[in-house]
Amino acid sequence: MMYNYFIVICFLLCAANCGWSYLEQDSWTNVELHHGLSSDPEHFSFRGNVTIPSLNSALSSLHQIELKTSELNVLTDLARQNGFYRLKVTVMYPNGKKQIFLTSSKACSLLQSELNDILWISVGPSGFISSVTHTSLSDSIECDVNIIEHIQGQEYNTDVLVKHSELAPMPDTAGFIQKVEREREARERGEVRDNRGFFSKYWMYIVPVVLLVFISGATNQDAAK
Amino acid sequence: MFLKLLSFVTLIALSTCEVVIGQDEIDEVSGLYTIEGKVYPPEQLLGAAAPSGKWQVDVTLSINDGEIKGFLREDGNFVISGVPSGSYVLEVNHPDIFYEPVRVEINPKGKFRARKVNFVQPAQIIQVPYPLKMKPLMRLKYFQAREQWKITDFLFSPMVLMMVLPLLLMLVLPKMINDPETKKEIENMQFPKMTNDMPEISEMLTSFLSGKQPEKEKKPVMANKQTKKRSQQQQ
Amino acid sequence: MADAHFLAGALTSAMLVLLSTTVVVNGLYEDQIKKFDWRSMHVGAAKHIHVDLNHFQPRLLLGTHEQVVASICPKTGEIGWRQVLEQKARGDIKLLQVSGFADDSSDTAAAPVGTHLGFDMLTVQGHAPALVRGWNTNTGTIEWEWSVMPLNTERAQDAHWFYSNSLLYHVVPTWRSHLEVTAYFGTSGHTTGSTSKIMAAWIKPESCLLSGTFFVCVDGKQLISLDLVAKSTQVIATTLDTEPTSKVQALAGLNGVLVVNRKLVSVNKAQTVCDTLQSSSYAVGTFNYRKIVAYGDLAEGVLKIKAAYLDNCAPVPELDQSLTFNADYGTPSLRSFDCKLKRNGDGKSCLFVFSTSAESIVAVQQNRVRWVREEALANVVDSQFIDLPLADSEGTLENEMKGKSVDATGFETDIASAFLRRITTQAIQIKSLFLHVIGLGPPPTDTQRAGLVRDSFGLHKMLVLLTRSGKIFGIDNIIGKHHWQLYLPNVVGFGNDENMRLIVQRTSKHFPLQPLCTIVAKDLSTGNGVLYRFNPITGRAAEGGLLQLDYQIKQLSLLPEAEPDFVKGILLLDATNKVHVHPKHATQLADGMYLYTADVKTSELAGYFVKYAGEKLSTTPIWTVHLCGHNNEQKIVAVAGKSSIEHVHSQGRVLGDRSVLYKYINPNLVAVITQAPDALHKSILNLYLIDVVSGSIVFTMTHRKVRPPVHIVHSENWLAYSYYNDKVRRTEITTIELYEGKTQANSSVWSSLKAPMMPLVERQSYIIPTVVEALRETITERGITNKHVLIGTANGAIIEMPWALLDPRRPIASTTQGREEGAIPYIPELPLPTENFINYNQTIARLRNIYTAPSGLESTCLVVATGLDLFVTRVAPSKTFDLLKEDFDYILISIVLVALTSGSLIVRHLASRKLLKQAWK
C-alpha cells in the first residue's frame, strides 16, 4: 500500500518536472533599468532596479526612483514630438554574465497612462532572458496633447511579468492507436449498431407516402361531395 | 609482497598503454557497409506507356533524402557502398511506379536487418528479406477521371423523373384498365379535381384585390357548367 | 503480428474513408497536363567536359559543379541521360575519366566478357568515403561501384586522384611532409600493394596541383614537380620567367603541362610544348591524326579560336574561327573539343565546347554558335512574376481615360455621371476598335509583336528569374520560352546566409509607364552594395542601369509608391546604421518606417526607427533581442516573415456555438527558429514569434530531440514548420495558430505598440512520411480562396496539402465537435495521396525552393519550383470557382433547351387542337 503511494508520488513529481513551462535550472536575476528621456540616443539616466529571485515564480521586487520635475518636462517635450521613450535594461545573471537589452515605447502613451507601465520579460527554455519589452497601460493609440500637459504623479507604477517558453506538442500517436483498437474491438463484439431509431432512419420514405394518402383522401372527399 | 608489486606494476602498465584497434580490415574500423538488392522491372505495369530508353536510368535509390544514393545496373541489381552503421529508410524513386520503402538497419557488428516502414509505430517490426527485393507494386495514379456523361444520369435526374413518370402514368393507366365503369370513374375523377383546385386559388387572389363579390357569381356559373357537362354525358 | 497487420489496415482504411467523405481531392485531369505547366531540366555548371565525336554514338560527357553526371547530344545540346549524384561532400566529383581517351599513358578499360567490370566512364567522388563508380555511357546505367574510407579524414580532403595504365591512384598530401600514393585496380577496388610514401617537404597548401601524373607546386618563380608513377622519385625544378600572377592550372590531356600566366609550361621532359602561344584557355585534341592544342579568347565581343600542332608548333589554319559572342553569355573558356577523324579533314566537323562565367555551356562549330545550355537556371535565387503590358486597343483607352479622370474627383457617387462615363468609355472602345481594324491605329510595339500582351485573366506573365551567378532570365510562364537574358558580372549574395534580391519597383498597372525591376546585390571585389535597374518586359537596363554604392548593405525595405512616377523607393540600411533611399525623390516617404536586422552569427535581432527631419534621414535603435542563450550556443536557423502582398479576407473563425474567435493578424510578426546542441536532448529547436516593430516576443516554444533542416511557412495568423525528429527518426510538421479571443482589440487599424501581448495559441504536430525540402503557401490577390501549403519533397514531388489537414484545431477525441468549424478529426499522420501531386510524374531533381504569386484570377495561384530543374504550373486551391469548368457541356445544355422549347411548342399546338376537337363534340 505504502509502496503504491510512493510510486504514485514519484510519478507525479516526475510528471510535474518534465511538463509545461518549468525551468530546469532556476536562479535569481537582477535587472537594472536606465531610461532615455531626451531624443539624444546616447544619454540614459538611472531609473531603478528589479530583483527577481526566481523566474519560475515570477515574483519580483522593484526599487525605482521618482521622476524629477525637470525630467518630467523633458519627457513631455519628447511626447509632444511623438518620440520614443527608450529603456536600456542590463540583466545580470548569477554566473556574472551581463547582457544589455534595449526597448522603447511611445513617450506619449507612457504619459497618458500616468506612468503606469508593464515590463514583460521573455525567458528562453534554459533560463536565459531573450527579451525585455516595455509597454504602458493606456488604451488609445492617438496622442491627446491636453492629457499629457496635466500629469499629476511622478512615481512609476510598474508591473513585472514573466513569459516562459512552452513545450511543443508531439504527434499523438498513442491515443490514436488506442482509439483504433477500441473501435476494432467494439466492432468485433458487435456493439456498434445503428440505434438511432426507426423513424430517424426511414423518415425520408414515410413522409411522402403519408402526404400522398392525405391528398388522395382529401380529393376523394371533395369528389364525393 | 612480490605479488603486490607485480599487481601494482601491471596496473601502471595498463593505465599508460594505448589500445590499438586492428587495422587489417578497413571497413570494420570505419564501419562502412554495402547494401545489396535487386529491383524488379516494371514493364507489365507501364504497359504501352513504357519509355524508349532503359527504365533503369529512371530509377534512383535514395537513403535519407538523397544523402546516400544508389543506381541500378542493367539487370536491376544494385549495390550501395560506403554506408555507415545505423537505421535508414531506403526508397526506390521512379516517377510512375510505386515501390514500397524499406527500413534497413545495420548494427555496429555488421548485421543487416530490413523491415517495413511505419512512422506512426516506429517500434513495430515486420521483417522483409535481405538482400532486398523491391517489387513494383502499382502504377502511381496522378489524375482524376473526368466525369463521363451517362444516359442514366439524365434519365434518373429528379426533374426528368417528376415530369416523365406522371405523364406515363396518366397515358398508360387508362389504357390498361379494361373495365368500362372504372374507366368512366377515372375520367370523371380527374377533370373535376383539377378544375376545382386551380380556380379556387385564382379566385382567392382576385377576391383579395377587388372584394368578395365575384366569388359568389363564379360559383353558380361553375356549378352550371358541371351540371351541363353531366347532363351532356348522361345523354 | 495479426494485430499489427490489422492496425495498419485499419489505419489506411480509416484514412481512405475520411478522405473520400471529407477532404476535397484537388486532382488534375489527364487531359490538362502540359497545357499550363512545363519543366526544364538542367545539369549545372560544367566541371569536367569530354567531347567524343568518333564514338559510334557521338557524345558529350559532363561532370558538373552541381554533382551531376550527364550525357548530352553534341548536335542539339539536349540531355541524353542524366544521373544526379549525392549532395555536399559525398557527391563532389573529383575525377571523370573516360576510357578510350586519346592519351598516351592510359589504356582502355578492357574487361572479360560476361562480367560487369568494364567501364566507359569512371567517376571518383567524395573524400571520406570516396566512391568510385563505373558507368555505361550509352544507357547511363552503372556498371560497378566501390568505396574507400581513408584513415585520416582531414588530410583526405586535399586528396587528388588520377588514372594511369588502368590503375587508379589516390594521392594524399601531408603538407610540408610527404605524399602518400595508393594504387587501386580501377574496376575492382583492390589495392595493388602497400601505400608508397614519398618524402616531399616542399609541398604547401594552396599552391599545389596535379597535372597528369605529376604533382606540381608553385614556389616563387619556380615550379617544383614530382612524377608519381616513375620509378625514381627525383624532384624536377622548372624556372619561370615571371612569378605567376593568376592561379596556375593544369592542362587536361597532356601529362605534366600547366598554364602559367597565359602560357604553356611543361615540367615533363618527355613532353614539349609551344611556349609562344598566349591565351586564357587551352584544350588538347586530335586533328587529322595529329595532336593539336586549341585556344580561344574573347576580345571586344569577338571570340577567336586558333590551334597549333603540338609537334612543330605550326598553326592550324583550318581551325581558325572567329564569331561574335554575346556578352550576356559571360566570359568563355575553352574546355574541350573534338573533330571527326579523317585523313584530310577541313575542320568543318570540329566542335568546340566552352564553359562561361555565367554558367552556360556553349558549343561552337563552323564559325557560329551551335547551341547554348543555360545552366545558370540550376541555381535560381529569386523569382518574380511581372504582368505583361496591355493590348493595343486597351492602351489607347487607358490613355484617353487618364486625360479625362484628372478633373473628376467624386464622380463615383453620382449615378448620372457614372452612366455618362460608361457610355463614353464604350464609344471610345468602339472607335479604337474601328481604327485598329482599318489599320489606322498606332503601330504595334516590339513586345506586342512578340505576343507579350496581357490576357484577360492575367494568367500570362513574364517570369523573371535571378540566378546565383548574376544572370537574369525573362521567361514566358505559359510556354517556357526565354524572351531575354541579362548578365551582371562580379556580383555575389550577401553574407548572413542571404541571397541577392530581385525587387519590383513599379508594376505594369500604370500604363504607359513601363514596369521597373531592381537587383540588389553585393559587389564581389569591394563588398559594397550594387543596384541594377532594368525593364523586365524588354530585358534592357532602365533608369541608369548599374549603380555602384559606396556602402555595405545590411537591410533593405520597400517604401510605398512615390507620387509622380509610381516607383516604390528602396530603403537601404548600411553597415554603419545610416539609411539611404533610392530614388532620391522618395526620401520623404521613409519617415516613420521601422526596420529590423537579424544577425546569424551572434543570434541577435535589433530594431530601428527611421525619421525624416530637416531634409535628412536618421535612424534610432529602439529595441534589441538576444536569442543566443547563456553560452552563445543558440544559432538562428530560419527567419520567416509574412508576404507583403498578402490580404487576409476573414477576421475570425466561426465556432460551433456561433460565436467568433478573432484571429491575431499581426503584419509585423516574424518567426525565428534557433537551434542549440544540448547535453541531455542532443539538439533543441526554439521557436520565437517576435513583433519587429515593438521588439516583444509574443510566443516561445521549445522542441526537444529535433534537429534541422527546418522549413517555415508563415501566413495570415498561422505558422507551419517542418523539422526532423531524431528520437523516432521521422519528419514532423508543427502548426501554430494565433487568436485574439472572443473580442477584437481594434478592428480598424493594427498597431504593434498597442497589440495584445498574450494571444491564444493553438498548436498541433503531425507526422509527414517524406522528407520535406521546401514549404510555401499559395497566395491570391484577395485572400478569399483557401490556403493550401505546397510541400516539396526530396523525391522531387510537390504535394498540395489543404490547410484543413494542418489545422491545429482538429479535434482529437470527438468526431462531431469540429464539424461546424470545418475541422476534420485528428489523425497523427498526414495523408499524401498521389492525386495531390501537382507535378504528376515530372519530378524535380534537388528541389530547393517553391515560389508562388497571385494571378489575375482570384481562384488561381501561379507556382514556380526551382532546384536543379525548373517547373512552372498553376494551382487552384478551391477549384476554379470563377471560371466555367473546362468540360462544360455546351452541347448537352443546348440540346435540352432546344428539345424543351420545341416540345412545349408542339404540345401547345396539340393541346389547342384537342380542345377544338372536344368543343366540336
Automatic annotation (TrEMBL), chain A:
The keyword GTP-binding does not apply. GO terms for cellular component: EMC complex. It comes from the Eukaryota. This is ER membrane protein complex subunit 10. It is a single-pass type I membrane protein. Keywords: Endoplasmic reticulum, Membrane, Signal, Transmembrane, Transmembrane helix. It comes from Drosophila lebanonensis (Fruit fly). The keyword Endoplasmic reticulum applies. Residues 1-21 form the signal peptide. Belongs to the EMC10 family. Its main location: endoplasmic reticulum. The chain crosses the membrane at residues 202-219. It is found in: Endoplasmic reticulum membrane. PANTHER family: CHROMATIN COMPLEXES SUBUNIT BAP18-RELATED, ER MEMBRANE PROTEIN COMPLEX SUBUNIT 10.
Automatic annotation (TrEMBL), chain B:
Residues 1-22 form the signal peptide. It holds the Pfam family EMC7_beta-sandw. Belongs to the EMC7 family. The keyword Membrane applies. Residues 205-235 are annotated as: Disordered. Residues 54-162 form the ER membrane protein complex subunit 7 beta-sandwich domain. The gene is LOC115630056. InterPro entries: Beta_sandwich_EMC7 (IPR019008), Carb-bd-like_fold (IPR013784), EMC7 (IPR039163). Residues 226-235 have a biased composition (Basic residues). The keyword Membrane applies. It comes from Drosophila lebanonensis. It is a single-pass membrane protein. Keywords: Membrane, Signal, Transmembrane, Transmembrane helix. The chain crosses the membrane at residues 154-173. GO terms for molecular function: carbohydrate binding. SUPFAM superfamilies: Starch-binding domain-like. This is ER membrane protein complex subunit 7 homolog. It is found in: Membrane. One of its GO terms (cellular component) is EMC complex.
TrEMBL record, chain C:
Its main location: endoplasmic reticulum. The keyword Ubl conjugation does not apply. InterPro entries: Beta-prop_EMC1_1st (IPR058545), EMC1 (IPR026895), EMC1_C (IPR011678), Quinoprotein_ADH-like_sf (IPR011047). Keywords: Endoplasmic reticulum, Glycoprotein, Membrane, Signal, Transmembrane, Transmembrane helix. Residues 28-154 form the EMC1 first beta-propeller domain. It is found in: Endoplasmic reticulum membrane. Component of the ER membrane protein complex (EMC). This is ER membrane protein complex subunit 1.
